[in-house]
């Protein structure tokens, strides 16, 4: 057992003495998840590897799969816009619609409620850059996870971008809208339902993204969100059922 540990430590120390370029070649041959984690020194080396190495590593790991190459590449935390551009140059695969991975939105929940989002907070700039670079995105993948997460964290600029690019608030039984209702957030609810909501110079009224249902009205009543109840009934013409009328008494 002790001999095995000594051999492992010796192998690790020998690797750390190799030139960085050779370590990159070894990793591209091994395609190992664990190699960068074997020591702090190796972790730092691979963490600050150039985009060309990252792109080749991700390309080799993602190739040969029946999945969309670019969608699979996006799931890697190492993946950046430069990496995708490199893969685009190297690959013969046509660019299809990319699915946005959960990893881009999962960390939004760690933001403190007192903080305010800016246009420079990720993943907003990254998504914009993807469109600018000519990539098309499926913003409704994973049952509208991206929009729901943005609503949950009150990231209005991100919500607006997702909606403008085609995200729908109707997935999973209008989950994004229900989240906004539970937060009693009239501004967010309007943003989700009305096209062009919040625009100062709106030339003509656009068709809403969805119709307000009796269930959404009932939820607003149960949450004691009177401004939402008024909005649903007076502006959107939603007629309450008998059970909701009883709750409104």
Q: What characterizes the major β-sheet? A: 2 strands, parallel
Name the helicity range.
Answer: 55-70%
Strand elements, count: 2
* Number of helices, where a helix is a run of at least 4 consecutive DSSP H or I residues: 15
**Overall CATH architecture of one domain:** Alpha Horseshoe
Query: What kind of assembly state do the chains in view correspond to?
Result: single chain
Task: Give the structural class.
Answer: mainly alpha
Poorly predicted runs? 1-10
The overall pLDDT average reads: 86
Q: Please state how the strands of the largest beta sheet are arranged side by side.
A: 1-2
Could you name the key traits of this structure?
Serine Threonine Protein Phosphatase 5, Tetratricopeptide repeat, 249 residues, single chain, disordered N terminus, two-stranded parallel sheet, mainly alpha, 2 strands
